[in-house]
Amino acid sequence: MGKTDRQVIAITHLPQIAALGSTHYMVSKEETEQGTVSHMSLLQPNERISEIAKMLSGSDVSAAAIDNAKTLLGIQ
Hints:
- This protein is of the alpha+beta class.
- It has one domain (15-73).
- Helices cover 37% and strands 21% of the residues.
- The chain has helices spanning 15-18, 45-57, 63-73, and strands at residues 25-32, 35-42.
- The protein has a two-stranded antiparallel sheet with strand order 1-2.
């Protein structure tokens, strides 16, 4: 769908889906006195590997998760 003059935006917690995108943004939320504020930042290639590894293994990122993230992204 995204390869034909269309833009697809997918919000996912699934690393297998996130790895398929051509661009990866990280969305986070912050609680302030005024309420909840959302932030969105474009990830660089090395940040993308780390973020997908976190999606695979949680906050304790293992070497195996990093290797798996690279495999999902087609980097080896």
